[in-house]
């Protein structure tokens, strides 16, 4: 059974995080279409507490990398995309085409966009670091304002030693 907890951070607003069998499965923005609705098993587990703590450190500029067990669910292509996203350095951006090439599908930038849209563990699997080929911010489940805020947040701490 999945367990959920809610948290709030000024930069992004309300988040719902979920875990199952000791692995993180969900992190959704309240503003996204994937935000869980209805009756949730609200049960603060040690992993959910640790996830909230690490997110707090991230938003305070004290954490650049998350150390959490992840179990996103998706197609094999989505999983390859999400693995590639986790290799994008903190404070950096890449294009959808870059990710498409990284997963062996050089013309699959639209499919990468769909995989990003289905990313079940936002921020920790950093789909916010993917931008359009023209350098513009495009497509983000939490909204472009949140994407911009996350990128600006990382930019201010990127060269800071932790």
Plain-language structure description:
With about 160 residues, the protein is α+β, with helices and mostly antiparallel strands. It folds into two domains: about 1-60; about 75-160, Winged helix-like DNA-binding domain superfamily/Winged helix DNA-binding domain (Arc Repressor Mutant, subunit A). About 35% of the residues lie in helices and about 15% in strands. It has five helices and five strands, in the order E-E-E-H-H-E-H-H-E-H. The protein has a three-stranded antiparallel β-sheet, with helices on one face. It has a two-stranded parallel ribbon with strand order 4-5. A hairpin with a 2-residue loop joins strand 2 (about 15-20) and strand 3. Helix 3 packs across helix 4. The protein is globular. The mean pLDDT is about 90. InterPro entries: MethylDNA_cys_MeTrfase_AS (IPR001497), MethylDNA_cys_MeTrfase_DNA-bd (IPR014048), MethylDNA_cys_MeTrfase_DNAb (IPR036217), MethylG_MeTrfase_N (IPR008332), MGMT (IPR023546), MGMT_N_sf (IPR036631), WH-like_DNA-bd_sf (IPR036388). Keywords: Cytoplasm, DNA damage, DNA repair, Methyltransferase, Transferase. It holds the Pfam family Methyltransf_1N.
Task: Please render the helix and strand layout as text.
Layout (H helix, E strand, L loop, with lengths): L2 E7 L3 E8 L2 E7 L16 H14 L16 H10 L8 E2 H7 L6 H9 L12 E2 L12 H14 L5
Parallel strand pairs: 4-5
Antiparallel strand pairs: 1-2, 2-3
Helix pairs in contact: 3-4
Main location: cytoplasm
Subcellular location: Cytoplasm
Catalytic activity: a 6-O-methyl-2'-deoxyguanosine in DNA + L-cysteinyl-[protein] = S-methyl-L-cysteinyl-[protein] + a 2'-deoxyguanosine in DNA; a 4-O-methyl-thymidine in DNA + L-cysteinyl-[protein] = a thymidine in DNA + S-methyl-L-cysteinyl-[protein]
């Amino acid at each position: 059974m999945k367990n959920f907890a809610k948290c709030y951070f000024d930069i992004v607003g309300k988040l719902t995080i979920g875990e199952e069998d000791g692995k993180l499965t969900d992190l959704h923005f309240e503003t996204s279409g994937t935000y869980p609705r209805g009756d949730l098993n609200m049960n603060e587990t040690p992993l959910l507490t640790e996830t909230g703590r690490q997110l707090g450190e991230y938003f305070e500029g004290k954490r650049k990398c998350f150390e959490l067990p992840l179990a996103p669910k998706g197609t094999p292509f989505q999983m390859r995309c999400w693995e590639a996203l986790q290799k994008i350095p903190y404070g950096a951006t890449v294009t959808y085409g870059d990710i498409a090439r990284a997963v062996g599908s050089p013309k699959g930038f639209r499919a990468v966009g769909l995989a990003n849209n289905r990313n079940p563990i936002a921020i920790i699997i950093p789909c916010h670091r993917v931008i359009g080929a023209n350098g513009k911010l495009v497509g983000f489940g939490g909204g472009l304002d949140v994407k911009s805020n996350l990128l600006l947040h990382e930019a201010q701490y990127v060269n800071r030693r932790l």
